[in-house]
Specification:
By secondary structure, this protein is of the alpha+beta class. It has one domain. Helix content is 22%, strand content 32%. The chain contains four helices and eight strands. A six-stranded antiparallel sheet has the order 2-3-4-7-1-8. The longest helix has 12 residues. The protein is globular, with a radius of gyration of 18 Å. The protein starts with 18 loop residues before the first strand and ends with a helix.
Length: 152
């Protein structure tokens, strides 16, 4: 008697890497988070800053605003690219903020979200960033963000 083989198809369309948007805006982080809350109907709140250790072993803090929607399991994080004169990603010196969107259910479309971000007052540029196109050292610094490290 032969054993019957059962094939199970797994859905691999679920997004494993977070969406990353580079945002250019002259607004301070708290004002930008309020505008994003209103436009995207989310609730970004000031959370513990991102701390990254520099080459001189000194930690630098970057502001972070976060929101997690328990119903959809989507999390939003707005992280400043600047802390004084230091940058998280030096090659993206014109980017003021990173918007990280973890969407395990793949409910958000990057292009649609980028269009919504461009409609926010005082946002002068929005770029969809691809982790695979960044240089190694910049990828290392960006991957130190806890929201991204889990997706790499």
């Amino acid at each position: 008697m032969k054993n019957k083989i059962t094939r199970i198809r797994l859905d691999v369309t679920a997004q494993t890497e977070p969406m990353i948007f580079g945002i250019v805006s002259p607004d301070p982080d708290y004002k930008l988070s309020l505008k994003l809350n209103k436009k995207l109907k989310i609730s970004l709140r000031n959370s513990s800053p991102v701390e990254i250790e520099g080459p001189d072993l000194e930690k630098t803090s970057y502001s972070k605003f976060s929101d997690t929607d328990p119903a959809d399991h989507i999390s939003y994080h707005l992280v400043s690219n600047r802390s004084g004169s230091t940058l998280i990603v030096r090659s993206l010196k014109n980017i003021d903020y990173f918007m990280l969107v973890n969407d395990p259910g793949n409910m958000c479309e990057a292009d649609r979200l980028a269009r919504q971000l461009r409609e926010v007052e005082n946002i002068t540029g929005v770029f969809i960033l691809d982790i695979k196109t960044l240089k190694d050292k910049d990828l290392k610094r960006l991957s130190e963000l806890p929201e991204i490290a889990s997706g790499l």
